[in-house]
Design goal:
The structure holds 2 protein chains of 2 kinds. Chain A is mainly α. Chain A is 49% helix and 0% strand. The radius of gyration of chain A is 19 Å and the shape is extended. The chains are: A mainly alpha, B alpha+beta.
Chain lengths: 116, 174
């Protein structure tokens, strides 16, 4: 089999061509993602460092939580994009992607036999 | 990716964290307030963190038993020694005028309503309809606590020797 090289330059170029530019200015800061991380870690009040984020950042995430579209609100392509750039959505999405990438490393998928 | 239940859990958890952060920024200890991440959406209706915040801010707090026929109304009685001290020195009307507070707070998301009344021994709080989100109420309570602290400083000043003249003047004005 011929080996193919993965070109990052070409990849970034293609990514830029195919992506849809965001209409919302990106105001996200590391503090916001820290808040979402605390949420998904199920941290107790004693484990949270309340000085590591500001009230404004928390207020932003709180409003993002209310702006979240649930699966039942999503019915077409337009609403599918509604969650894009939402802090909570981005955190969950990137965590899932990183998990899949980590566990697919050097993994060989066995061919499944058809049972017919 | 998120079900409706997930969204509600995230919203109520963030509301709890916002309440804790407000208390923390006002200078209160919150590390012993336990879980703020809720496991299911209706867990937050009880307002555990709101209740703990009231206790921390004012002292003692108790919920009144439901009356027959009263629908979706919860009453809390707050016992605050500082209010008793203030009412021993000033008239009730004067204290009510000096406090910077809103007697009625309406939650932006659910339309639930909180009413505060000054009593002889503290406050009487009434919550109409069940609110899922308590942070605006906690914010209001912190505001009241701050203005009580300011009045206490003024009361201390009147008690001191330097304030004696001032106190005499105050009595004349009244």
């Amino acid at each position: 089999m011929k080996k193919r090289r993965f070109s990052t330059v070409e990849f970034l170029k293609q990514l830029q061509e195919r992506s849809i530019p965001s209409k919302i200015p990106r105001l996200q800061t590391p503090g916001m993602f820290r808040i979402v991380e605390y949420l998904y870690a199920g941290a107790d009040a004693s484990e949270v460092d309340f000085d590591s984020f500001t009230l404004d950042e928390l207020d932003y995430v709180y409003n993002e939580a209310h702006a979240l579209y649930s699966m039942e609100d999503i019915y077409d392509e337009e609403t599918e994009r509604a969650n894009w750039y939402n802090v909570i959505y981005e955190y969950v999405r990137s965590t899932q992607n990183i998990y899949t990438l980590l566990h697919s490393r050097k993994k060989q998928y066995a061919e499944e036999d058809d049972f017919i | 990716m998120f079900s409706i239940e997930d969204c509600q859990v995230i919203q109520s958890s963030m509301d709890n964290l916002l309440s804790l952060k407000l208390l923390h920024d006002a200078g209160y200890r919150v590390s012993d307030m336990g879980h703020w991440v809720t496991d299911y959406a209706y867990e937050n209706v009880g307002g555990d963190i709101f209740f703990m915040a009231m206790e921390r801010l004012f002292g003692a707090c108790a919920e009144e038993q439901d009356e027959e026929g009263a629908y979706d109304i919860r009453k809390f009685v707050i016992l605050c020694p500082d209010v008793e001290e203030l009412l021993g020195m000033f008239t009730k009307e004067w204290v009510e005028r000096q406090l910077t507070w809103n007697k009625r707070v309406i939650c932006d998301w659910t339309g639930a309503e909180m009413m505060i009344e000054l009593t002889k021994v503290g406050f009487l709080i009434e919550i109409h309809e069940s609110p899922f989100f308590f942070n605006q109420f906690v914010q209001e309570l912190i505001q009241i606590r701050k203005s009580i602290d300011q009045l206490l400083v003024y009361a201390q000043y009147l008690k001191g020797s330097r304030g004696a003249k001032h106190a005499a003047l105050y009595r004349e004005v009244q």
